[in-house]
Amino acid sequence: MPLERFSASWREAYVTSASAGPNLRDEGECIFCLFAQDEVNSSTGIVYRDEHSYVILNAFPYGSGHLLVLPHRHVAGLTELSDEQYASFFLTLRRTVRAVEAAYGPDGMNVGMNLGQAAGAGIPKHLHGHVLPRWIGDTNFMTSIGETRVLPESLESTWHKVHEKF
């Protein structure tokens, strides 16, 4: 089946216009910058930290074991990180995958980033990566029909399971 392509060149004027500008600005205090100052413990949700990066529980998880990996530095994209920060971020991402695999023994793993608001980032001004364990058949009728997710464990339980594997 051939891939159909549609041109929408008229959108160029919008995405480069002043009305698109508010989506590019920082407004208010960054929650991820506040968390970057917190200590590793179950009350903060911080699971791990090193000099340049940290791992935190996702407060609104898609499923059990959903973690976020972030640089301490407030940047929106990968290209804004120094080489040392970039290395820390991706080493921490790999370490997080290993910890989640050890804690949960999933059938697979979603690892990804939404870079920018247009890509779906909920907090587009602070780079973050998602690590989410997956199991065969873990999307059930509650998610598919009821638009609801059922989490079989508390965030505190998730924190303890994963923290001990770091």
Describe this structure in words.
The structure is a single chain. The chain is an alpha+beta fold and 166 residues long. It has a single domain, classed as HIT family, subunit A (2-Layer Sandwich). Helices cover 27% and strands 15% of the residues. A 5-stranded antiparallel sheet has the order 1-2-3-5-4. The longest helix is centred in the middle third of the chain and has 22 residues.
Under the CATH scheme, which class?
Alpha Beta
Structural shape: globular
Strand content: 15-25%
What is the CATH topology classification name? Answer: HIT family, subunit A
pLDDT averaged over residues: 82
Query: What can be said about the biggest beta sheet?
Result: 5 strands, antiparallel
The figure for the number of domains is 1
Q: Which assembly state applies to the chains in this document?
A: single chain
Q: Treating each run of at least 4 consecutive H or I residues as one helix, how many helices?
A: 5
Give the full name of the CATH homologous superfamily: HIT-like
Structural Rg: 18 Å
Measured between the Cα atoms of the first and last residue, the distance is: 46 Å
Topology:
Blueprint: H1 11-15, H2 31-35, E1 46-49, E2 53-57, E3 67-71, H3 83-104, E4 108-112, E5 129-134, H4 141-144, H5 155-163
List keywords for this structure.
166 residues, alpha+beta, HIT family, subunit A, 5-stranded antiparallel beta sheet, 5 helices, 27% helix
Q: Can you describe this structure in just a few lines?
A:
The protein is α+β, with helices and mostly antiparallel strands. It is built from 5 helices and 5 strands; from the N terminus they run H-H-E-E-E-H-E-E-H-H. It has a single domain, classed as HIT family, subunit A.
